[in-house]
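Handout, page 2. Input:
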Amino acid sequence: MTTLTNWLPPEERYCLFCGAGFSKWAVGLPTAYELFDFKIKPYGPREGIRLKKIQELKIKWDEKNPSNNAEEFIGFLIDHSTKYKKLAIWYIARRLAEPFVDKTGYFVNNEKMYADAKGRRVMGIDDRRKGNISEIKKTAGFINNLSGPNFSGIITTNYDLLIEYALGTKNFFYGDRPRLLYGPKRAYLTSPKDNTPVYLKGSIPVVKLHGSISLTEKGYCADARGCITGKAIIVPPAHNKKISDVLIQEWNYARIILKNSKKIIFFGFRFNNYDQELISLFKETTPWIQEIVCINTNFDVKATAEKIWPSANIILIHPRELSDIDLNTII
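Output:
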């Protein structure tokens, strides 16, 4: 499909690349280092057993590995057995969805309504409740300030649905469009419209390189049910991470966005040395990228960026400075 972006001079185009620091800034979600704070309120005995098991494993692992490196612990779980790998994926996905898990139900005419999750669901992309969540409004405001005909799209390594919540199904698409999402429009079926098929028909491409808590073997879902079932397709943050075959097309979509950009705005991305697939992807863009904007609390990322893009202009911005900056000056 030809859009206005296809007719714009390529030197004016830019894209946004979100790392874990973006979700940390927006909604306080943990980075990889902070993942095992166990801030989950288990719902039912099954989740309680899972949470207790991974806590026990972490305590034993820390006793033998005082470095307390979360990524190494995740690597241990992945390599140990399929059972431990599934437990790790469940915990990571479930922890990142915790702020958006509703256990109270939805009331209509003083009658409590539930879907098929026995009183608990993760907020759907078009959930009515999101309009009352300040962190989602904050995220939407940031992305809206970047949006425009020169905006090539959003690439992220994050699994959470913060970007999707902020944009809504009418404003983004996953790689190709229209795309049908699995599941109803809203978790709480209070009207026939809530059970209608959900299509993504927006204009902003969103690419999730490491999977999503909404991605399962059935495809992308209208909510994050994968974090409840433990069947989310994600690439855990470990030194031995391997990109699933299911995600290969996501990387191809990312290349299209990067190819259509002369500037990359990185928000909360660390440029870890062990992310060699990502480093290689970035190096492909060296010949044409003219400017890199790093929004980060750690200014050490500049040195890595300079190695990847030696001819590009590198700009550093601390997240706390965003309220004082007109984003139009950097796009």
